[in-house]
Amino acid sequence: MPLFPRTWDSDFIDLPVVDPRQQHTPTVSREQIEGALTTSNDTFRCLIACLAGSGLRINEALAIRLDDPQSPHTVFDPASSTIHVRRGLWRGREQDSTKTPSAVRSVEIPHALGAMLMEFAGKREGFLFGNGRPLPETTAREHFTKVNLSPFHSLRRFRVKHLAEQNCAPAVARYWTGHATSDIHERYNHLAANVQFRRAECDRIGLGFELPEVKKV
């Protein structure tokens, strides 16, 4: 028998009722992304394209390093056009782990985006977006406002929507976005663990928007 028979539920503590259908979940269109790409400098152009073309969270994208693919950090591997997510940022500081265990993943990106990031990186070292230190999130947020883009997560929603429209295998879509699954069928089919299948899906699905040329810096 419990000492204090009290049910700590949402009614007892008077929590507000959250209706997912009424939550504000802004997204962006292909035209808005392409417009922002053409009016941004190389750094923000590549950041916007990376977010919209990979579905990464902003703290994951800003943590990308130009390092050995086997390093414990989040790295961009130009040879395979893949971003290996292993760490994120919190208030500009690299963390020892990701938001959730499911967030540790290898995200294949279209080769056109990989070539764009590789050209932008050049022979630099350290963080892909930043100069010695990662690009501050506040700086990126100010630029998004300047080019009339909704907050960072809108680009993640764009990617999720594009994957769904192209009939991406649900197991792979969840894997790329770092979402855990409770679907027993997805756990059994092991599609998310099949690198060749993920690569083929990535090449088939594409970006959903056009990339401009990036000049070397």
Average predicted local confidence, pLDDT: 86
How many domains in all?
1
Distance between the termini: 69 Å
Which percent bin holds the helix content?
25-40%
Shape: globular
Biggest β-sheet: strands ordered side by side in the sheet: 2-3-6
Q: In the CATH hierarchy, what is the superfamily? A: Intergrase catalytic core
Number of helices: 9
Number of strands: 9
Percent of residues in beta strands? 5-15%
CATH topology: hpI Integrase, Chain A
Protein architecture, described:
The chain contains nine helices and nine strands. The protein is α+β, with helices and mostly antiparallel strands. Helix 2 (42-54) runs antiparallel to helix 4. Strands 2-3-6 form a three-stranded antiparallel beta sheet. Strands 1-7 form a two-stranded antiparallel sheet. A two-stranded antiparallel sheet has the order 4-5. 39% of the residues lie in helices and 11% in strands. The protein has one domain: Intergrase catalytic core (hpI Integrase, Chain A, Orthogonal Bundle), CATH 1.10.443.10.
What's this, in brief?
With 217 residues, the protein is an alpha+beta fold. The chain contains 9 helices and 9 strands.
What key attributes describe this structure?
single chain; two-stranded antiparallel sheet; hpI Integrase, Chain A; 3-stranded antiparallel sheet; alpha+beta; 217 residues
Question: What topology emerges from the helices and strands here?
Answer:
Elements: H1 30-38, H2 42-54, H3 58-61, E1 65-66, E2 75-77, E3 82-85, E4 89-90, E5 93-94, E6 105-108, H4 111-121, E7 126-127, E8 130-131, E9 133-134, H5 137-146, H6 153-165, H7 170-177, H8 184-189, H9 195-205
Antiparallel strand pairs: 1-7, 2-3, 3-6, 4-5, 8-9
Helix pairs in contact: 1-2, 2-4, 2-6
